[in-house]
Amino acid sequence: MNEALISRTGRHLRSWATGRPLAGGTAGGGSATVVLEDADRLPAVLASDVVGPRTLVLVPGDQDGEEHAPSGATVVGFEGSLSEPGGDASIGGAIFLQVQDYGTSPYMSLLGTTLVRVAGEPDFEAFLADADRARETGEFEAFAVSPAVQIADLGALGEAAPDDGPGTRLWIAADGAVSVSPQGTRLGTAGDSAADLSAAWSAATAAAPAVALGRAVPEAVRGPAVAERPWLGRYLAALDMLRDLQVHGVSDVRISGFGGRLAAELADVTGAHDAQDPAVPFLAWTPQAAYVRVPGHDRTFRLGGRAARTAERLLVHGDPATAADGADGAAVRQVLDFFAERGAPLLPATADAPAEVGV
Fold first, then answer.
1. CA–CA separation, 51 vs 195, rounded Å?
2. Residue 293 sits in which domain range?
């Protein structure tokens, strides 16, 4: 495998595991990523319209990025398992992946890139307990914030996932059953058309939104638990920020709104603007510095203490006038302008003429 194909395969694998679409989207029909448990199902899949020029197919075997004619799909082989907790897989001698269930992950050594799956109710309960603890105390499970870890099937765990579905990912089990993930509700059979799978997805999500975990966690258990925690999407986005900071050597991090605030006087504000919405920027801090991550822009800014406290007031109140009440109005304007100038507004509705601010 060449470097370009290795990079592409890594992106597709992450999208397939999480249910997040590929960044920037991909043109063409069919599913973006299809993973097969058994190579015997490959002919039926390649003969259907679920694959196209944008599709990357992962299949047990030694295929080395061959382009299938006439579909145009790229077929890549792997060894091992991409589905079974406790298993591992290698792709082209360049990508190595462990698969673990959520419940045992805190006790396992991370030897490399690790996909963590919710494989049953005990895993789901452990995930909720970790999220609740982070929300209340600011303490995040060490394995969950490791840059080596990716939690699977995020839409079923509280992340808004409007683009998940057969157009983003498919899993073909050894018996030919088709879903979007190994733990997912069955949508059809290998060889079914893209239209039939899409219709089955629509019907399944209307009845039970978490298709990706349909065989692992009963909707009667999952649905109410997620509804009681409308902030889970923000928690999952906070994990992303913590992993990114660790990649850049930043540890011992606190995140505003999880167990406290940088400015103690903001801790008791009710109905905070940044309490639930994962699209609202995050403020984090260490004993040495503070950071703001602006979702959707893939950018993190380092701030000084005064600017960080001003930014936190804006994120908590969600309104410049309220944030400036009892504070330095000029500082509020400067912080807003700093982010607007860099194309990543802190509060998008207030983005206008920029001005410099010391950070």
1. 12
2. 252-350
